[in-house]
């Protein structure tokens, strides 16, 4: 799964191993075989995630066995690992779960501390190549990647110098242009890991500290964390708690996604009052007090409507800060003046207000997630940033 590439790459980098290439294949035997062939190279370690489960579309180990001309057999050690997972359960071990004990001949199973399916490590016969196979569930990948790499004997020249910056609101291509045009890389190797309105930027090599300092200084207002994988909602929560600020949200196009991410942080009740999903214009008017004349004059997707949504949810909740989001998430509904991806966000705190327009790209899901990220980034900046 492509969602696991950052976790896998990070663990490889921690061991001093460079990620040379990545590929994504559908759950189809021929596609898996072609992707495997494209990645093979003498001495190469290949890490695969996804397709190790008990269902008929979990084809990865069987497809790899077929592509390499190996038998696909039940592994006794893997079978014991699976049976032990079900020991003591009233329902017993289902027959379907035992399918996860089948693997290419010669593969070694690695116990899964976060799930059922064992990881697999296969030294390809007659070569210096090795394949590590992991389940697709991200938490299982994070639990299995290190022990599987240990089993594979995967280590490079030791952990390389590595730093991380997490940046919101700057698309990956624009971030690359800034760094390259202004010579901020300082000779470091850079990895860009984008996701929903944010980019995790990883600096590697001896020049990593200098590049890290240069980019952090240049992008100070957009940097929300220096910790790998740390979500912006967690950073925002700390800033709200530190400042004694209570937040409320008003959401249209994000449909509760912003509030959902905020409340995913344990303890968020201390700084999040609640939110209103006001999708229709009628709800905006009746619940949040947005004036009909505002919507008639400027439209539901406008700076004026976003501002009144924020004021309305603050009055309704008694909160001291607010975020309001209204936009066109698509795939339909866009116009020439407000194309799909147009989003207006209002952020209010401490008597100050910011209202910004964003033109976002991607699918409906990406636009909605990106809008939520940008809303949190705006408010975090108004609160003084991650440590302000």
Largest sheet: 5 strands, mixed
Q: What global shape is seen?
A: globular
The counted number of beta strands is 15
Strand order of the largest sheet: 12-11-13-14-15
**Structural domains: how many:** 3
Estimated radius of gyration: 25 Å
Low-confidence stretches: none
Task: Assign the CATH class of the largest domain.
Answer: Alpha Beta
Q: Into which percentage range does the β-strand content fall? A: 15-25%
CATH fold name of the largest domain: Molybdenum Cofactor Biosythetic Enzyme, Chain A
Mean model confidence by pLDDT:
92
The CATH superfamily title of the largest domain: MoaB/Mog-like domain
CATH architectural designation of the largest domain: 3-Layer(aba) Sandwich
- State the helix count: 13
Structural features, described:
This protein is an alpha+beta fold and 388 residues long. The protein folds into three domains: 2-152, MoaB/Mog-like domain (Molybdenum Cofactor Biosythetic Enzyme, Chain A), CATH 3.40.980; 162-225, Alpha-Beta Plaits (2-Layer Sandwich), CATH 3.30.70.2860; 232-382, Maf protein, CATH 3.90.950.20. The protein contains 13 helices and 15 strands. The protein has helices spanning 5-14, 29-39, 60-68, 76-86, 138-152, 172-181, 208-218, 232-243, 257-262, 281-288, 292-298, 303-317, 364-382, and strands at 45-49, 72-74, 102-104, 108-110, 119-123, 130-134, 162-168, 189-195, 198-204, 223-225, 247-251, 272-277, 321-327, 342-349, 352-359. Strand 11, helix 9 (257-262) and strand 12 (272-277) form a beta-alpha-beta unit. The longest helix has 19 residues, at 364-382. The two termini are 37 Å apart.
């Amino acid at each position: 799964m492509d969602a696991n590439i950052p976790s896998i790459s990070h663990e490889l980098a921690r061991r001093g191993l460079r990620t040379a290439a990545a590929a994504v294949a559908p759950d189809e035997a021929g596609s898996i075989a072609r992707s495997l062939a494209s990645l093979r190279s003498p001495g190469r370690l290949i890490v695969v995630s996804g397709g190790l489960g008990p269902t008929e579309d979990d084809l990865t180990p069987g497809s790899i066995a077929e592509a390499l001309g190996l038998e696909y057999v039940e592994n006794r050690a893997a079978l014991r690992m699976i049976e032990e997972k079900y020991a003591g359960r009233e329902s017993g071990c289902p027959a379907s779960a035992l399918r996860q004990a089948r693997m290419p001949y010669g593969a070694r199973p690695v116990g899964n501390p976060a799930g059922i399916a064992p990881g697999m490590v296969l030294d390809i016969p007659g070569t210096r190549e090795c394949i590590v196979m992991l389940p697709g569930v991200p938490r299982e990948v994070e639990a299995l990647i290190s022990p599987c790499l240990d089993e594979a004997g995967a280590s490079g020249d030791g952990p390389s110098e590595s730093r991380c910056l997490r940046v919101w609101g700057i698309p990956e291509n624009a971030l690359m242009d800034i760094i390259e045009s202004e010579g901020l890389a300082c000779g470091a190797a850079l990895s860009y890991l984008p996701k929903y309105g944010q980019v995790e930027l990883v600096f590697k090599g001896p020049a990593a500290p200098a590049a890290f300092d240069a980019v952090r200084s240049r992008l100070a207002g957009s940097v929300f964390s220096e910790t790998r994988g740390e979500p912006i909602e967690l950073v925002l929560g700390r800033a709200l708690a530190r400042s004694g600020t209570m937040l409320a949200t008003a959401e249209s196009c994000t449909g509760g996604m912003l509030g959902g991410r905020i409340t995913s942080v344990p303890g968020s009740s201390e700084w999040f009052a609640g939110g209103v999903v006001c999708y229709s214009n009628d709800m905006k008017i009746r619940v949040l007090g947005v004036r009909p004349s505002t919507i008639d004059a400027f439209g539901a997707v406008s700076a004026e409507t976003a501002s009144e949504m924020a004021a309305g949810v603050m009055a309704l909740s008694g909160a001291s800060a607010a975020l309001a989001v209204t936009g066109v998430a698509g795939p339909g509904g866009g116009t020439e003046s407000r194309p799909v991806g147009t989003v207006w966000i209002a952020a209010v705190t401490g008597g100050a207000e910011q209202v910004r327009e964003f033109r976002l790209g991607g699918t409906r899901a990406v636009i909605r997630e990106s809008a939520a990220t940008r809303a949190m980034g705006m408010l975090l900046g108004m609160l003084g940033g991650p440590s302000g």
